[in-house]
Specification:
It is built from seven helices and 13 strands. A hairpin with a 5-residue loop joins strand 5 and strand 6. It is globular and about 50 Å long.
Amino acid sequence: MGIKKRQFTKNVLPKVITITMLSSFIYIGQNLETSYALPKETVLSQSYTRSNTQTGKIKPCDYLNIRSGASTKHSIVGKAYTNETVNILEKGSNGWYKVKLSNGVVGWASGSYINIQNSNTTINTNTNISKVDKTIDIAKKQMGKPYKWGAGGPSAFDCSGLTSYAYKNGANVKLPRSSREQAKVGKSVSKKDLKAGDLLFFSSAGNGINHVGIYIGDSKMVHSPRPGENVKIDKINSGYYSRTYVSAKRIL
């Protein structure tokens, strides 16, 4: 019996140990494979999110400021230029888009300067945004045409003639003919809450509204200023137009 026991220990026991180790290795391997299942699913989910990212192209402009927040009050973190492609990461409630530039800079820009290239959400199907874009585009296309009192286009404009022409042809909206009457329609908005397409009203003589322009974002408006000048874009937060600003109305 002593000899048989020694033979068992010598021949059988190592095999038992080997089988036990292999079983443990297989068990551990199965657990490791299971532990990686969740990260694999997470990667697929992230890939799906990225596939819904929209792209946009910068409209013709000198350059578009990219800011740290969704208003002109925030600091500039980068610049984008005409026809540059950006990724649209988020749409703000005030018409601004969170974008990512090709150089990796992420920030906010006025949506009125960006043409959406593809869409899986409601950004491109929002009728009001589409009408605003068309209205602004039509107003900008009149740049360079001369101011003429009482003119409503298409070869010349006074201030309210330009706004009426742009809204009629861009949004199928008929505005009153004078700036003073236009100031009585639409929804009043504060200067800090301006959105592209809002009408801006000014009083240069101190005796009531006598000028109107269309806000295009980034503290700028397109308008027909005065005799001797042409339709152009001006800033509203400095100089003459900052001093004479009165109110704003949202039509769309």
